[in-house]
Germination protease
Amino acid sequence: MNRSQLYGNLGIRLDMAVEAHDVIRQERGSDIPGVKVFKAQHPTATVTTVIVENVQGEQAMGKPVGTYVTIDAPQLRDNNREVHQQIASILAKELTGLLQLRPDGSVLVVGLGNWNATPDALGPKVVDYTMVTRHLHQYAPEELAGGLRPVSAIAPGVLGLTGIETAEIIKGIVEKTRPDLVIAIDALATSSVDRIATSVQLANTGIHPGSGVGNKRAGINLETMGVPVVALGIPTVMHAGIIAHEAIEKLMEQFQTSPTLYKLYKGLNPDALQQIIEQVLGPYTRDLIMTPKEIDQLIQQTSKVVASGIAQSLHPSITPEQWTQYLQ
C-alpha cells in the first residue's frame, strides 16, 4: 500500500501542496505531468513554488490549478525579532507576486478558525494584528500617511460557534463591501513535525476551511466569492495517523540490517499496516490531531510575522515601525 492510498484510507488530506507533490513524485519515481516546481534559497528561508498547470496536474496532485508557494523558515519557531522581520519581508514579496492587485485596490482579510481552540486560532490572531485602513478613507483621511490601500478585516468564527457557514458570512461581507480581493488565513495540517509553526503556504486558489482535519466546509474561492481569493496558512497540527505510520516506517528500516527480519517485513500484507494504525488509534483513527504544548506561544509569534508580511505587501510605503501605529 503506497503512502497516498494509506492517507486516503485514514481520511488524511495533505493541506500543503509541496508535501502532496513530494509523496506523489516519490511513488511515481518521476516528475508529475502538468506540475512544475521551482526553489529559491534565502539566508533565513527556502521558498518552493509548485505550479499546477492543467487538469492532468490537478488530478494527480488533488489540488486546483494554480500557484502554491511554501516558505520553509525553521527560525520562525525561535523568538528572534530580527529574523522574524526578515521572514516577514520574504512573505511580503511572495504575497505581492500572487495578489495581482492595482495600487488602490481594496482587500478583505479574513481570519478563519476558532479563537477558542489555540491550534486553530491563527486566523483570528492575525486579524488582531492586521493593519485596517478602509474606515480611514472616509472618517480620517489625514491619517493616510503615504497613501494606504483600503483594507478591512474580519474573524467570522466557525460553524459550531455561529451556526452559520463561514463561506456564507464572508460572501455577505464581500457583497456589501465589494473588495477587489480576499486574503484568507487559516491553520493547516502537515505531514512533517519539522513544518509545524515553521512554514508558510500561499496559494492563489482559495481555501476549504478545515479540510486538513476532516471537516468538509464550503470553499472560499473565486467561484464562491466572486472575487479572487489568496489563501495563506501555517501548519499548526499533525494527524496522529501520520505519526504512527512514520514510526512504523522507521522501525521497518532497521529490519534491513537483519536478513530474517527484513524477509518478514517484505512479506507483510500492505493492508496490515493500516490495520495496525487503526487498532492503535481506536475510535479516533480519523480525528486524532497532535500539536506542540507550546502552541500558544507559537501562534502568538507566527501571527505577528504573517500580519507584518501582509502589511508590507498591501502598504509598501509603510515601514515595519509605522505598521504598529495602525494596529487595532
